[in-house]
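so my prof wants the structure for this chain in the tokens format not the other one, which i didnt know existed until like an hour ago. anyway here's the sequence
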Amino acid sequence: MTDLDVLVFGGGVAGLWALDALRRSGWNAALVEAGALGSGQTVASQGIIHGGGKYMLLEQADGAAVEAIRGMPARWLDALAGRGAGPDLSAARILSPGCLLWVPRGSTLANLKERGLMAIVVGTGMLAAKPVEVSDDQWPAAIRASALKVWSMPEPVLDPGSVVEALAAAHRGRVFAVAERPRFEGEAVRFGSLVFRPRAVVFAAGEGNGELSRAVGCGEELMQRRPLAMTLLRGPALSPLYGHCVVGGKTRITVTSAQVGSETVWSIGGEVAEKCAAAPEDGAVRTEAAAELRRWIPGLDLSACRIATFRAVRAEA
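here's what i got, hopefully its the right format
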């Protein structure tokens, strides 16, 4: 039996960051993960470090959300530079130093320029860093013919897998792969022959937090689930794109990119991922996602692209 101050459940970014913070503060902590590190919500994320920009453009700006995360980009940039009190993420890969926010032509927000909404957003001072309007000659090729206005947000886009690797690197001996379901036996937590006796536990297992909460006699009322059907688009005609397409106060699509050989792969989320989650079959998801892309990025050539989909559940407190 191993005595611990804290046992962390879940080997995604949240759990690994918690483990790092605990050990940096001098606590005797360890982490358990039932699958591959980062194989849950982390791998389904698109790696954008939000600073609140897109929430300020909603029909009713979510000031509470902005206030809660406005400092996130700066905190992450410190970690990526290997400085500050947080983890050293200098080995993680930055895919893009910023994220775009664009409004397509002909949308219900086509009068955004006249209304001066972005100027109002900047003027509130709620954002830690101001968005910058991008001149049309600098717009990404994929949206050059279809965008009305484009802004650059100082929100870096990271490769989630490399973040997991960087977080785990300093704690190799404190991360345990477990195949068995946990059994809570008084002060002990048992995974087959592996037994811990922690003074406290941290649940950072995403959707798995529900089962863990029930196992220790707590309810799930504080957790909400958002099913998602994410889409991957791959093809030689695609060019890198990182950003949100905002229409009618909603993020219709969010695109991040990765290079695989000579081809670019788009990871597509946003409202389309929530909308497609209701589709019973993956074929219907692919059809709906392609329709949304054609609608908001007209002129995008999908003829030589391959479309795949995977499902995920985003569990949030």
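also thought this was worth mentioning. The first helix runs from residue 13 to 24.
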